[in-house]
Model the fold of this input.
Amino acid sequence: MARFISIWFRYLATDWFSLLNPEYKKMPFVLRQPSHGRMIVSAVNAAAVRSGISCGMALADARALLPDLHVLDDEPDKIQRVLYKLAEWCMRFTPWVALDPPDGLFLDATGCAHLWGGEEKYVQEMTKKLTARGYTVRVAMADTPGAAWAVAHYGKNPGVVPAGGHMEALLPLPPEALRLEPQVVERLHKLGLHHIKQFIHLPRAALRKRFGVGFLQQLDKAVGQELEPLQSIQPMEPYHERLPCLEPIVTATGIEIALKQLLEMLCLRLQQGQKGVRAAVFKGHRVDGKVEQISIATSRASHQVSHLFKLFEIKLATIEPALGIELFVLEAPKVEPHLPQQEKMWEAGGGLDDVRLAELVDRLSNKIGERIYRYLPDEHHWPERSFREATSLQEEAMTEWRTDVHRPLHVLPVPERIEVTAPIPDYPPLLFRHKGRVHTIVKADGPERIEQEWWLQQGQHRDYYRVEDDEGNRYWLFRLGHYHDETFQWFLHGYFS
Done:
């Protein structure tokens, strides 16, 4: 059964300002913003509420009630960014967190509470940690987002509504708990319908006729007869595992143990689905709200715990636990099919299909911090487009490498402009200047004309020369365009070994 949590930050804006200036917490304090040519109270703190001040009140009336009222300008855009940061922080409790503007969050807590020892402890821990951060919150859990919202905002004792008990929890609440339009709420009260139990069982046709379709939709969302889609602030990866900690972890040994446990859980799921990791991210949610993370990539799909742990182990030292890590998360944003390969006894192993080669490439690339590339031929004449980066060691070429022509081992991705001295009309150059250095050519071969494909024809052709300077270095040069054209240019495009 699905379970949802609603978190209401009752004084979100004023709590945030109080965190910046703690003395505001002790005094009546409000935020103001203009509305229709006058200043109104847009947010209040608990002390101001006890003095009879409420949101929407004219600022002049509020000051009449409390002359020493402290007032600051509201910053709604900044407060919404604060709410988003709080949503990111709450992802330590569940991977699915949605915004409920202007001052709330929705959490899909399905299957998460057992990690904290049950729903009661789960909600208590959430409330305790948010309160410790300086926010006044009301937290409720129920079978639907609407019911959780209603109990959090209007329930006498917000907390855990037992599974299947959301209908009973809704009955004594006022109609405002259904998130209705103000005019609909006003009409209900005028009719003497001050509690949901007074109209929930009335004929739907009569309710639709008097209060509209939107009223029934909100009621159905609360009781669970209509699904309420929630948009998480971060899409949840299909393959991920979470490991909450009873006590914050501050040692390297503890981090290693957590990583091994997560890898074992994740790899078991991947193995059952005949899939393997191509990219993985290990995250540690710290007590201070920051997230430490390291990532790895593999050259072929793998669900071997020992191999993946070795890749992460190289980077584990970069994780700073500070005051402690209270939640570890392992995500695999990129997975690929991983099918066991059949080996033939009469054929020697090795080659690109050898698992040992893939593991060696993974260790080297993760250790040096740079990816190791493999290239395949591509069907293009232009040299810089005649090859492409392979996606894996197992990817097969669609065409053959050209062996009938000489090509340099190192081809520049973008040809570099050079100055050349050459006789006419199509003789090889005598010398060239590259990056301020003059190279005297003693041997040369060419030209070899290369043009683009007719369906990509843009610009001039190229005449390539293989040259060797007086120091024995060999280069691949080309002239762009005909020699008799005034716009011709020379370029360096590669180096021979």
Residues 342-348 have pLDDT under 50 and may be disordered. The longest helix spans residues 252-272. Residues 410-495 form one domain.
